[in-house]
């Protein structure tokens, strides 16, 4: 019975790698472009790729600073991250609180509802299992006419499909938090699906202040959300936790930066293989001892799937996050 189960798992692993896996463009947020006004005067740096921000709101008053900027000091990997800082839009009776926002799509000004200014989405047909990445959050409390309200960030991805003259939500990966996070924390946000259909549109959003929309206009002035290295994860094993291994074992550290160690209570020859989320084999080694160290310095940051096999039969599998 155990052998049959392992064979089934192996088939799932194989089939999973043939699923089309789309990821986020410019997902390490290294690429930014200069934006100019109609006279050719510099306005701000805008996030490249198919991303957009609500920086356009800041141009309404020249004294307002952009809400979304490149972060060059506190980065998880590479040279840049996204820094989102909620602030006042100068004027408007002393200043209008604006929550910093970045997302996949386009942005057109709508003063009646700033969140309706964000036009969500890009074409997308895959079904990821997780939204992963790193974030820092430094909220500032909101003084609502003497009542103190905690600010709250949101990070999410929606997968939708247009059908029967309406747009249906098929899957959601959602996270929100009011907690201060001063150093990068790794997020794994699982998708929850309500349909077996493939989507046609995807949008991912980072919002520093969750309630910064009419009628509330809540935003902690100076609230900062920093995000870096976000990916859509495709788990070919179709699990949210590692498979129960056939032998007692420990694979660590996870997340890992340079070297990955496997301790396993077994003496026979085993094969270890690591796959990227698009199914490409990126590391393959034979295990001859109870302790084995893998050099993964050549791998880029992201989520990978490992498989350990014996005589071509899977004995363990799961995910590894590379920092």
How is the secondary structure organized here?
Layout: H1 2-16, E1 32-36, E2 42-47, E3 51-53, E4 68-71, E5 81-85, E6 87-89, E7 96-98, E8 101-107, E9 118-120, E10 122-123, E11 130-138, E12 142-144, E13 147-149, E14 153-163, E15 166-177, E16 181-190, E17 192-193, E18 201-207, E19 224-233, E20 249-252, E21 259-264, E22 270-275, E23 281-287, E24 291-295, E25 302-310, E26 313-322
Antiparallel strand pairs: 1-2, 3-8, 4-5, 5-19, 6-7, 8-9, 8-18, 10-18, 11-16, 11-19, 12-13, 14-15, 14-18, 15-17, 20-21, 21-24, 22-23, 22-25, 25-26
Write structural notes for this entry:
The chain has 323 residues and is mainly beta. The protein folds into two domains: 202 residues, BT2081, beta-jelly-roll domain (Jelly Rolls, Sandwich), CATH 2.60.120; 86 residues, Immunoglobulin-like. The chain is 5% helix and 48% strand. It contains one helix and 26 strands. The strands form seven sheets. Strands 3, 8, 9, 10, 14, 15, 17 and 18 form an eight-stranded antiparallel sheet that branches. Strand 14 and strand 15 form a beta hairpin. The N terminus is likely disordered.
